[in-house]
Every structure is written in structure tokens, then in C-alpha cells.
Design a protein that fits this description.
The complex is a heterodimer of chains A (213) and B (239). Chain A has a single domain, classed as Jelly Rolls (Sandwich), CATH 2.60.120. Helices cover 0% and strands 50% of the residues of chain A. The radius of gyration of chain A is 21 Å and the shape is elongated. Chain B is mostly beta strands and 239 residues long. Chain B has one domain. Helix content of chain B is 2%, strand content 38%. In chain B, the strands form three sheets. In chain B, strands 3, 4, 6, 11, 12, 13 and 15 form a seven-stranded antiparallel β-sheet that branches. In chain B, strands 8-9-5-14-7-10 form a six-stranded antiparallel β-sheet, with no helix packed on it. A two-stranded antiparallel ribbon of chain B has the order 1-2. In chain B, strand 1 and strand 2 form a beta hairpin. The chains are: A mainly beta (213), B mainly beta (239).
Chain lengths: 213, 239
């Protein structure tokens, strides 16, 4: 018979008597830091062609574990009723982020805990049209995920409430998207924006950085 | 009295004093690879799917191990012309438990045997996937399958709301999952999916997605749209 004692104190683990179940509590994985960033685009113009609206790159030497990628748009000028399909594509190598028509953010804050390490990631979000100037060595042909969004003929938000996640609600046991050094992803509108209307895209990314996974 | 010590360092597991609970972290299952592929049909005239049970998407495990299906999401983007007849859209997913041969007439094949590789690994260093997927590309649906052992009862179904005469998307935002109820992103951790028994496909097993109802009763030329199907899966030698 053994009683499990803590490695840090004299505390011992309890087994509840009715269900004979050991008490455990879930902790985050071993990481150097955990981060979350919400970027807002400029006012993306009507008829903006299919192209790149957001890029994310991991610039560290360990691994970057992507937990959530959420998108939505605040409609500032009503569209001609339409539809939008956003695709997420993983970039596997030789990724340089272009900044033409885009705003670069090299993350230095965005920590979930002040004492954590500074993140090693950067993102570019569109100003008024698609971003150009990226250098992409190898990007997946097949998208990692898609989000469909109605483009409404009224001034509102799409979706009506909240954002939509490319990956889904955080599934704690699922294998995450793991980016190695200099890998990243790009979000593109697969089809052009409607002929009239405009709005601000919201892209929120949650990620962890670790020496290994 | 005992301790649990790491096999790679001298670290000991901590038991929190107040709750008397041992600290644990969740890790993925033992797998050879984890993948996510989002396929989009070409822009099609959906009114040509004038019958129910047309095959719109097929997925097959061509490997020798297991394929653990974690998520199957679907949506339709109306691109140029709305549907002319109001009607509901409901799709069902059927498991094909043995002797599955994927036809490619009226479809585009990706992955093993297809013209485009599925490179959508969740980590570049993972093994290449052994899956094959075919998505609707033309005519009245995909034909040429051999799937005589297919389940007669759907594994799951999903509804996307009524068709519309306007250019829009179904659903209005995001996609809908065959396995999991719609959960807004802000609902946080999907604990149920973390512990649910997954759809586990053995070698040469797969699934097919069909429209339960004639897609629309409308006029030829109406309903110019694209189908989106996103599948997330793990591959493993055992489970």
C-alpha cells in the first residue's frame, strides 16, 4: 500500500470513498508562455479580391502551439447581400511576412501572465485591401480550415454575436497545430468581397510557446 | 508513502494541499499523425442534385492502422445565385465499415490516389496521411462507389437551415459539425469531445456524406454555390 505524497510538501492525494476515484486537477502543458492577441484590420474596401488578409509567423526556436484562431467582421457600410469564405493555410517553410497593405505587429505583450517570457511571434493584418509581399516557400494546397460568413445588407456584425473559430471549441486532448521555427499560417478570403460595403476584420489567435511538445 | 518521479528528470509530481489532488496535464493520444483538411467543391449549380441521397463527399482510410475521426464539419457558400425554391437542407453521414471503393465520377479526389496530396498535418514532422477524400465536383453527385456494407442508419446528421434566394452562407457563420453540437467559440473548452469515443475507421473503411432530401426543387441554373467539408482526424497503429 502506498500513499502518494507531493514532491513539494507533505500533502497527500485523496481517493474519494464513494467512487473510489483519485483526485487530480488539470494543469496547462509545460510551456515558456501562453498568449492571446486580437487584431483589428483597417476598413476593408468593397470588391477586395481574393487574397491574404492575415498572416502569423513563429520566429522562435522551439515550437508554437496554436490553440484557437477566431474571426469575425464588424460591418461599417452595408454590403450588397453576399457571402464570404475565409480559408486558413499552413506555411511550412521559408516564410517571410510582407507588409504592403498590412500592419505588422511583433508581439511583445499579450501574455496570459506577466512573468512569462516575451512571445516569439508576429502577425500582419490587412489595412484596406489584401496584403502583398509575402515570401512563401511551401504552403499547403489544401486548407487547414474554413469559415463561412454571411455579408449582410445592413450595418451589423458577422457573425451576429461572438466570433467563429477555425479550429473549434478548445478540445483539450486534441493534437494541436504545432508550428516549428519560421512556420506560420495565412488567412485568405477565397472569394472577392461584395461590390459594395466595407468592414473591419477581427482576428484573434491564442497560442503557447514551448521548448518541446 | 510514495512519490511519482519523472523518468527523464528527478522532478516529482505535486499534490495540491487544499484539494488533496494530484496535478496532471492532458496530452494527445498515441498516434502516428494528426491532420485537418478543409476541401471546397468548385462553384456548382446545386439544382442539378435533384434527388435525395446523392453522394457529396467520401472519406476512406487506405492505411493499415486506424483512422480516428475527431470532427466532420460542413457548410455551403452561395456565391452568385440564390436558390429559387425554399426548402430545408439536411445532410447525413453514413459509415462504410468494409470493402469501400471510392468512385471519382462527378468528384475530385485528394490524398492517396488523388491528384492533390493532403499535406495538412498538424505538425510538419508527422507521417504522411493514409487518407483519401473525394468531394462533389459536377453533375448529380459522386458516382462509382462500391459500398455495399454501408450502415443503413446514419451515424449522424446535421441541418443547415432553409435554402435562400439570396447570396449568403449556410450556416450564416462558421460551419456545423456532424459530431458535436454547435458551440460558440466563447464557450471555452469542449470537454465532451475530449473524452468521447471517436469514430474509428479500420483499414479500407470510410464514410460518406449525402443530402437527405432533393437538394432543391428549383430551376436548373439556380443555386450557384460551393460545398465546404472539413475533416479532422488522427492516424494510429492501435487504439
Amino acid at each position: 500500500m502506498a500513499v502518494l505524497q507531493s514532491g513539494a510538501s507533505t500533502a497527500t492525494m485523496t481517493v474519494d470513498p464513494t467512487l473510489n476515484a483519485a483526485r487530480v486537477n488539470l494543469r496547462p502543458n509545460e510551456v515558456t508562455g501562453s498568449y492571446r492577441s486580437s487584431l483589428i484590420s483597417g476598413t476593408i474596401a468593397a470588391s477586395t479580391a481574393a487574397g491574404v488578409l492575415y498572416t502569423f509567423k513563429y520566429t522562435g526556436t522551439g515550437v508554437c502551439i496554436i490553440r484557437s484562431i477566431q474571426v469575425g467582421e464588424q460591418v461599417t457600410t452595408a454590403y450588397t447581400q453576399g457571402s464570404m469564405r475565409l480559408g486558413l493555410y499552413v506555411v511550412r517553410s521559408s516564410f517571410t511576412q510582407g507588409t504592403t497593405n498590412g500592419t505588422l505587429t511583433s508581439f511583445s505583450v499579450n501574455k496570459k501572465r506577466t512573468s512569462q517570457a516575451t512571445p516569439n511571434a508576429s502577425a500582419v493584418i490587412a489595412t484596406t485591401t489584401v496584403i502583398t509581399g509575402d515570401t512563401v516557400g511551401a504552403e499547403d494546397t489544401v486548407a487547414y480550415g474554413h469559415i463561412l460568413l454571411n455579408l449582410p445588407a445592413t450595418i451589423t456584425t458577422t457573425p451576429v454575436d461572438g466570433l467563429r473559430d477555425f479550429i473549434g471549441p478548445y478540445n483539450a486532448s486534441a493534437y494541436p497545430l504545432v508550428l516549428a521555427a519560421n512556420e506560420g499560417f495565412r488567412i485568405k478570403n477565397d472569394t472577392a468581397f461584395a461590390a459594395t460595403g466595407s468592414g473591419n476584420l477581427v482576428v484573434m489567435v491564442e497560442w503557447e510557446e514551448a521548448t518541446a511538445y | 508513502m510514495g512519490y511519482i518521479q519523472s523518468n527523464v528528470t528527478n522532478d516529482l509530481v505535486v499534490v495540491d494541499r487544499t484539494a488533496a489532488a494530484m496535478r496532471t496535464t492532458l496530452r494527445p493520444n498515441e498516434i502516428t499523425g494528426s491532420y485537418r483538411a478543409s476541401l471546397v467543391s468548385s462553384t456548382l449549380t446545386f439544382s442539378s442534385i435533384s434527388a435525395s441521397n446523392a453522394i457529396l463527399y467520401t472519406f476512406k482510410n487506405t492505411g493499415t492502422g486506424l483512422c480516428l475521426i475527431k470532427s466532420v464539419q460542413i457548410g455551403i457558400q452561395i456565391i452568385a445565385t440564390g436558390f429559387t425554391t425554399t426548402g430545408g437542407s439536411r445532410f447525413s453521414l453514413y459509415r462504410v465499415p468494409a470493402t469501400f471503393t471510392q468512385g471519382t465520377t462527378g468528384g475530385t479526389q485528394y490524398g492517396v490516389g488523388g491528384g492533390t496530396s493532403i499535406t495538412s498535418k498538424k505538425r510538419t514532422s508527422l507521417a504522411t496521411s493514409a487518407a483519401s477524400a473525394v468531394i462533389y465536383a459536377s453533375g448529380s453527385g459522386i458516382t462509382g462507389d462500391t459500398a455495399t456494407s454501408e450502415d443503413t442508419v446514419p451515424h449522424s446528421s446535421v441541418t443547415l437551415g432553409g435554402t435562400a434566394a439570396t447570396v449568403t452562407t449556410f450556416p450564416a457563420a462558421g460551419l456545423r459539425d456532424f459530431f458535436n453540437p454547435q458551440v460558440p467559440a466563447f464557450n471555452g473548452i469542449d470537454m465532451a469531445s475530449s473524452v468521447a469515443y471517436p469514430l474509428a475507421l479500420a483499414a479500407n473503411e470510410g464514410f460518406r456524406i449525402k443530402n437527405d432530401l432533393a437538394f432543391i426543387n428549383g430551376t436548373t441554373g439556380a443555386g450557384t454555390a460551393a460545398l465546404v467539408v472539413t475533416v479532422e482526424w488522427d492516424e494510429a497503429s492501435a487504439y
